[in-house]
Structures are given as C-alpha cells and as structure tokens.
Write a structure and sequence with these properties.
- The protein is α/β, with parallel strands linked by helices.
- Strands 1-3-2-4-6-5-10-11-9-7-8 form an 11-stranded mixed sheet, sandwiched between helices.
- The protein has a domain of 242 residues: Amidase signature (AS) enzymes (Alpha-Beta Complex), CATH 3.90.1300.10.
- 54% of the residues are buried.
- Helix 2 packs antiparallel against helix 3 and helix 10 crosses helix 12.
C-alpha cells in the first residue's frame, strides 16, 4: 500500500480535506467500532490540535509531513493529563503527569493523538484478552484474537481508524498482532527509541514500535521517534533512514532461516508450506539461501519468560496503591498491600509476578535466573556468528494461525508458545519487522544490531517479490 502519511499530507495542503474533518471522521469510526480497540478517546485534545493545523494552512503557512496526521497510542504510554490505565483495574483512574519521550517527539512533529488503545494488561499476554475493557477482536474475523499485547493498536491501523499507531514490543507484542492483522509492525534495535514514559514490563527487551500499513510510514515515524534521550541511558544517537535508501536492496546477498523453526512438529503445515514457497521465490531472484541452526523454540520461550517474569515482578513492585493505583484498605498495612494487588491485578499479571518472584528468590536465582542470563548471552553470540554469514534472517512470525477468542485464556502455555518465533530476536535486542506477506500471519525480517535500515530495505524488496 502507498504511504498514507504522504497521501493525507497532500490532501491537507491542497485543502482537499480539512484537518478537523479528517480527525472527526476517524473519531467517529473509533466511537462506533465493535472491535474493543478503545480505552479512552482523546477527542477534545485532537480537535483542538486539528483546528490549529487548519488555521496554519488557511494562513498560507507550511506544515510538516506529520502535522495533522491522526495516530493511536497503546495504553501503556504516559500522555500528560490523559488516563493511562495499562488496561488494568489497578490504574483505571490514573492520569499521567508527564508525556513519554517518543510520544512527545510525535507531538512536536504535529501528529494528532486520537486514542489510548486497548492491550493486554501491563503488556502481559499474546492475545489482547487480558484486559478490563474486553478482548480486542481481530480486524478480519471477530471470532479470532487480535494478537497481543498491542492488539488494539494493530486493529486500529488495519481498520483505518488511525493512520499509524505506537505499540510496545517486549517479546513480540508489536510483531505478532501486526501479523494477525496483516499490516507492518517494527521492533527497532533496543535503545534506538527512548523507553522513558513507557510502563516497564521487562526493561531489558522493552521497545517502542510503530505499526502502519506501509513501509514508508514505518520509516517516517521511526525517524521522528529515534534518538538519544538523557532520561533513558540505554538510548543512542542513530542516523536517519532516507526514503531513497530503502528502495535499494542490492547489498542483500544471502538470507538465512532457522531450520529447526521449520522442521518442527509445532508449526502448522500451511505456515510451513507457505514459508518454504516464499524462500523459493527469494531464491529465484538470485539471493543465496542458507539454513541456520538455532536454539530450540522451547528453550527460547523458557529463557524469555524466566527473565521477563523476573523483571516484571521487580518493575510492578511499586504498584501497591500507595503512590499509584486503586488502593483497597485492609485490616493492616500489609493486608492493604495484599488486597490491593490481589484484587486489581489480572490473573495473568499475578501469574507472572509470582513466577518472577520465584525466579529471583533465594535458593532459586542461581539455578534459574543466572542460567537464563547465561543462555541470553549465548543467544547473542549465536546471532553475531550468524550475521557474519547472512545479511538477513527470515522466519514466520508465529507457528500457527490466530486462535479463537477464549482459547488462549484456557491454556496459558499455548499462549506463551505462540511467541516461540519472536522472543529470540527480542533477547538478542535485534531490529525485526513483520511484513504482511508470505504466510497467513506474515513474515519476520531480522538484521544485525543497529541495522534497522536493512530490515526496511528487505521489507520493501519482499513487497514486490512475494
């Protein structure tokens, strides 16, 4: 699909449509939608900002490329003065006192926020069902899940309620719902975009990620949000990616894929067949294909969830109803903490906190947590070795098609295993994008650290190849 940002920009500049009318149309779609994508509408703010854009255009002033473009925000980002609930009972009445760095950069560029979007509570889930606002429904089949945890963000883009949305990806939470809803979703290199103002799930893998219908729109939004931030010491200064650079893919000579991902009993036969057919089409274009060896998917999922649960147990320890959240008084201070957290956290969040505390507890941390850290180091070393032999690693996004709403809640282990093909790249902190081609839930393109431009190049190449 062509860039929606460029198209709408031209419509605004030529006065084919007013910004106020554009924003109102999208707000109306969000209000009437039946996919449970909305936690709260930012209609007053959006219309105020739209009126300012219209005034600039009327006065003959130049507007920026993102100025007046409507977008959505996963409800785990701080936006000053708005409800930031993380789709949880604990924070359902919490209002942000500041704005996340990545979101502020979009505001500074003139983009207009429409909505805080439904997601798995605190990002805990792979289906966007663990939410107090009701399960998000897939854009193409409302009986199926939207994917998680950025399900509301992905569906809003797929249904054209927002031009782009900002999700959050810890172990696949942008890439998997993008695949389920047949759009693009990018997890950039860890540290390229500031995490300041994003509610922490697992700090060592959390990434801010754009979701859109075109590679060009992903590129535009990525450039705006990237950069060093003194409020996030993991960030670094990155070079802007030009529109022209992603049109050339000549430097990509060799593609690798993990044989054990494909020769696996867990993968759906159709996903496997479609993936191998995509490999053949790439091969026909003169690109070499190399089979790679990697850790078994069970090992990847176990390592990821060991570390992620440990980090989330630590990160959520501050939410006890004292400084943040819906406080429930008990018979004592200890009882107040207990009741507040027990009644306000979802079952999935409690499962992850309990698991994380077990991992970090005395007598277990050496055997479990430190072993997880050691395997993560081995995974990173494996990637370094692989990227000396190949330019890109290609994989399915998920081993199976989207499940029906309700199925994942009955079987948490199956939900964890749906992340089998995404979590390894998160542990490696690598740039990886979902593209809506190749299999029912798309393909995943990954490059070496800090090589985000290369994943966009190959995504553009695949658009015309598959």
């Amino acid at each position: 699909m062509e860039s929606q940002i460029h198209k709408i920009h031209q419509q605004l500049v030529s006065k084919e449509i007013s910004c106020t009318k554009l924003v109102q149309q999208r707000l109306d779609l969000l209000k009437s939608n039946t996919h449970n994508t909305v936690n709260s509408l930012l209609d007053t703010l959006a219309l105020e900002l739209a009126a300012k854009v219209d005034a600039k255009i009327e006065n003959g002033e130049e507007i920026g490329l993102l100025e007046g473009i409507p977008f959505g925000i996963k409800d785990v980002y701080m936006v000053q003065g708005t409800y930031t609930t993380a789709s949880s009972d604990l924070l359902k009445k919490y209002k942000s006192s500041y704005t996340a760095t990545a979101i502020q950069k979009l505001f500074d560029a003139g983009a207009i926020p429409l909505v805080k979007e439904n997601c798995d509570s605190f990002g805990h889930g792979s289906s966007s069902e663990n939410t107090i606002f009701g399960a998000v429904k897939n854009a193409f089949n409302t009986e199926l899940v939207a994917g998680g945890s950025s399900g509301g963000s992905a569906v809003n883009v797929a249904k054209d309620y927002t031009v782009f949305s900002i999700g959050g990806d810890t172990g696949g939470s942008v890439r998997q719902p993008a695949g389920y809803n047949k759009i693009y979703g990018l997890k950039p290199t860890y540290g390229r975009i500031s995490r300041f103002g994003l509610m922490a799930y697992a700090s060592s893998t959390d990434c801010v990620g754009p979701i859109a219908k075109s590679i060009e729109d992903i590129r535009i939004v990525l450039n705006i949000m990237s950069g060093k931030d003194i409020k996030d010491q993991t960030t670094y200064q990155s070079k802007k990616i030009s529109k022209e650079s992603i049109l050339k893919s000549d430097e990509i000579k060799t593609i690798g894929y993990f044989k054990n991902f494909i020769e696996n009993d867990a993968i759906d036969a159709q996903v496997k067949s479609d993936f191998l057919a995509s490999i053949e089409k790439i091969k026909a274009k003169g690109i070499a294909i190399k089979e790679l060896d990697f850790f078994e998917s069970d090992t990847l999922v176990s390592t990821y969830y060991t570390l992620a649960m440990a980090e989330t147990a630590s990160n959520l320890s501050r939410l006890d109803g004292t400084n943040y959240g819906n406080r429930i008084e008990g018979s004592s201070l200890k009882d107040t903490y207990s009741v507040t957290r027990s009644d306000n956290f979802s079952e999935e969040t409690k499962r992850r906190i309990v698991g994380g505390n077990q991992v970090l507890s005395q007598g277990f941390s050496d055997d479990i947590y430190l072993k997880g850290l050691n395997i993560r180091d081995q995974i990173s070393e494996n990637f370094e070795k692989d990227f000396k032999e190949v330019d890109i690693i290609l994989s399915p996004v998920t081993p199976n098609s989207p499940p029906k709403i309700g199925d994942s809640l009955k079987d948490p282990l199956a939900m964890y295993l749906s992340d089998a093909y995404t979590v390894g790249f998160s542990l490696g902190q690598l740039p990886t994008i979902t593209v809506p081609q190749g299999t029912e839930t798309g393909l995943q393109i990954t490059a070496a650290k800090n090589n985000d431009e290369l994943v966009l190049k190959f995504a553009n190449f695949l658009k015309d190849t598959i």
